[in-house]
């Protein structure tokens, strides 16, 4: 997952969590985007690792659970 310019607050916290878990990369304005993308797409191991970590932090049925909370 590549995160670019999240909204301040909750989205920034989510971006920080995803990046710290190893499931994604938060690209900031001062980062060299071309280098980050080049390095990422030329590293099958890194992509595979991010994919596995994303599955590990995923919350199954989260959409359903949110709807149940909102709709009662």
Account of the protein in words:
The protein is mostly helical and 72 residues long. It has one domain. The protein is built from four helices and two strands. A two-stranded parallel ribbon has the order 1-2. Helix 1 links the parallel strand 1 and strand 2. The longest helix has 14 residues. The protein starts with a strand and ends with a helix.
In brief, what are we looking at here?
With 72 residues, this protein is mostly helical.
Largest sheet: 2 strands, parallel
The poorly predicted ranges are none
Structural class: mainly alpha
H/E series: EHEHHH
- What gyration radius follows from the Cα positions, in whole Å? 15 Å
Distance between the termini: 32 Å
Helix and strand arrangement:
Elements: E1 2-4, H1 10-21, E2 25-27, H2 33-41, H3 44-57, H4 62-71
Parallel strand pairs: 1-2
Characteristics:
72 residues, mainly alpha, two-stranded parallel sheet, 2 strands, flat
